[in-house]
Amino acid sequence: MSPNLAPIVLFAYNRPWHLQQTVNALLKNPLAQESILYIFSDAAKDENSQALVTQVRSYIHKITGFKKVFIAEKAKNAGLAPSVIEGVTKVLEKHQKAIVLEDDMICSKDFLKFMNDCLDFYQNQQEIFSISGYTYPINIPTDYNDDVFIFPRASSWGWGTWLNRWEKADWEMEDYANFMKNKTAQKVFNQGGEDLTPMLIKQQKQRISSWAVRWSYTHYKHSGYCLFPIQSKIHNIGTDNSGVHTPNTQKFDTMLSHENLKLTLNLTPHSKIYQHLQKFFQLSTIRKIINYLTLR
Q1: Residue 281 CA neighbour count, 13 Å, CB half
Q2: Torsion of CA 97, 102, 107, 113, to 10 degrees
Q3: Strand 105-107 relative to strand 36-41: parallel, antiparallel, unpaired?
Q4: What are the residues whose beta carbons fall under 8 Å from the beta carbon of 283, sequence distance 6 or more?
Q5: C-alpha angle 155-13-53 in degrees, rounded to nearest 5
Q6: Of 228, 217, 207, 215, nearest to 179 (Cα)?
Q7: Whole-angstrom Cα distance, residue 132 to residue 150?
Q8: How many CA atoms lie within 13 A of 84 on its CB side?
Q9: Confidence (pLDDT) at 142
Q10: Cβ(2)–Cβ(120) under 8 Å?
Q11: Which pLDDT value is given to residue 295?
C-alpha cells in the first residue's frame, strides 16, 4: 500500500444517527487511523432541520481515530449538489485523489484498502474515470472471471476519483442544447441506464439538483467508465425516507463483502453485465409516459 493514502471526504447534513453509523464503519478499517478525514457540514434549510444539524455539528467535533480531521461548516444551506462539487474540488486540488462518502454509507472493513488500491492501480488508465465501492444488486454472470468490472455510469455511493478526471466535468453543461438535438448521443449516454437522459433534463430544468447525473455525463463525454467490485463494499442505510434525495426502497440493498478482490488492468465491457444493469435501471411504462408529458 502506498503511504500516500487518499483523503476521505464526508458530507453531512441533518442525520446524526446515520452519520455515526457511517463513521463507526469507517473506523473499523485499519487504514482509517492513517487517513485524513474532511467533513463538510451543510447548514439547516429551515427551522425544522436546525436541531438535527446542531446535533450533527456537535458530534463531528468529537470524532477521533483518523490521522487528522478537518471540518467545514456552511453558514447557509447550499444543498447536496453544490456542496459536493465545491468540497470534492477543494480536496482534489490539494491531494489529487479522494474517497467520497455521504452520511448514510456503511462500508466494509476493507473499503479503504480497496479504494486506495484502485486509485493507485488505475491512476494511469485514463478511461477509468471513477471507482465505486458500491455494486448494484445484480447477478454477476458465471462466465465473468474478474473481481471488478466497468460500466459507463458513475456511482455516488462510496466512490473515488482523481483531479485530472474530475476537472473535465462541465457543471454548467454548456453543450446541453446540442446533446438534446442528437438522438444518437442520447442513446450512447443511456447505455448507462435509460433513466439518465430524463434525469439530465430534470437537472437542466432545475427540477432536481444532481451532481451525480452530470458526473455520469462527464464519463459519457470522455468515453470513460466507473469501476465496480463484483461484491459491494458499501451498504446504503439512507433508503429509509430519512434523506432529501433517496426514497424509501429496498431496491438497492446489498450485502457487504469483506473479501480481498484482485484488480485487473485493461478491462473490457461485458455484455451480460451491461444487460443486467440496463434492466435494473429500466423505466416503467408509467414513468416513461410521465417523462414524455412533462419533460418536453
Answers
A1: 20
A2: 10
A3: unpaired
A4: 194, 195, 198, 291
A5: 170
A6: 217
A7: 10
A8: 24
A9: 93
A10: yes
A11: 82
More confident: 244 or 288: 288
d(C-alpha 100, C-alpha 94), whole Å: 15
All three cell numbers of 85: 462539487
Residue with the three cell numbers 443511456: 190
d(CA 66, CA 192): 36
Return the CATH superfamily for domain 8-294.
Spore Coat Polysaccharide Biosynthesis Protein SpsA; Chain A (3.90.550.10)
Grid-cell match 478537518, residue found: 70
Q: Residue 171: exposed, middle, or buried by beta-carbon count in 10 A (0-12, 13-18, 19+)?
A: middle
Which cell goes with 239?
433508503
In residues, how long is the chain? 296
Residue 1 pLDDT:
46
- How confident is residue 249, by pLDDT bands cut at 50, 70 and 90? low
13 is written with which cell numbers? 447534513
Residue 229, φ and ψ in degrees, nearest 5: -80, 150
Residue 242 has pLDDT above 70, yes or no: no
User: What's the rounded mean pLDDT across residues 275-284?
Assistant: 93
Residue closest to 179 by CA, chosen among 156, 160, 204:
204
Residues 133, 114: contact at Cβ < 8 Å?
yes
Strand blocks (E) in the chain = 8-12, 36-41, 68-73, 97-102, 105-107, 128-132, 148-151, 159-162, 225-229, 234-236
- The alpha carbon dihedral of 227, 228, 229, 233 has a sign of positive
